[in-house]
Amino acid sequence: MRIGEIAALVGLTTRAIRHYHHVGLLPEPERRPNGYRVYNVRDAVLLARVRRLTELGLSLDEVRDVLADDAGRELAEVLEELDADLARQEAAIRERRSRLGALLAEPPGAAGPVSPALAALLAQAPRTDSPSAAKDREYLTLMDAAGAGGQGIFGVFGTLIADPAVVELYERLDALAEAPTDDPRIAPLAADLMAVVPEELFAAIPADGVVVTGFREALLAEYTPAQAEVVGRLMDAFMERGRG
Prior knowledge:
The chain has two domains: 3-97, Orthogonal Bundle (Multidrug-efflux Transporter Regulator, Chain: A, Domain 2), CATH 1.10.1660.10; 108-243, no CATH class. α6 (116-124) packs parallel to α8 (150-161) and α10 runs parallel beside α13. It has helices at residues 3-10, 14-22, 41-55, 60-70, 75-104, 116-124, 131-145, 150-161, 165-174, 186-195, 199-203, 215-220, 225-243. The protein starts with a helix and ends with a helix. It is built from 13 helices and no strands. It has 244 residues and is mainly α. InterPro entries: DNA-bd_dom_put_sf, MerR-type_HTH_dom, MerR_fam. Residues 72-99 form a coiled coil.
């Protein structure tokens, strides 16, 4: 094979191959009397290996070390390893496409890329335009990104989020947007919110709590004063119940 042919075969440019020759990553094959380099199957496998390793983020120096470890190995063994690499890549692509398909099926305004566990949880949630419900979806997404969710705790949340009464509670919280902090609706709403929390969720709270330093303040700042009063009371009662 000539350089243009092997470049097309392995998905590289002729310029890249010449660069690999220049830096000593790939031995330069002998030239024929007409001046053309002639490449064989081993060269193609080596270049495919280089391409795969660089796609994984390895530097050329790191690739050189890997190739040195490959020296002397049977061609079939290297080919099998390349095939296994491609199989893993295909599986990763299928998983990404599956998650992308789930995202495309979501309604406008959904939370975005999330784990399968959270996606399943959000699928149970009743449809509502409540701003408070939207905030809760954002917090669940934050938990998911921080690794604090998972099938177990999100499964417990499923009991809560699927409760039809939750939508009414969200709407009552929305109604406090312009209320003062001494509004008489605050205490009953905090109590009613606490009442719908499943017992299993309390058991899932770590002994040292779940509120990272500064998170409580940051969370409450997202609400108006009366709403923050409700959420603050709920957080306090929630943590106290969890320690009990």
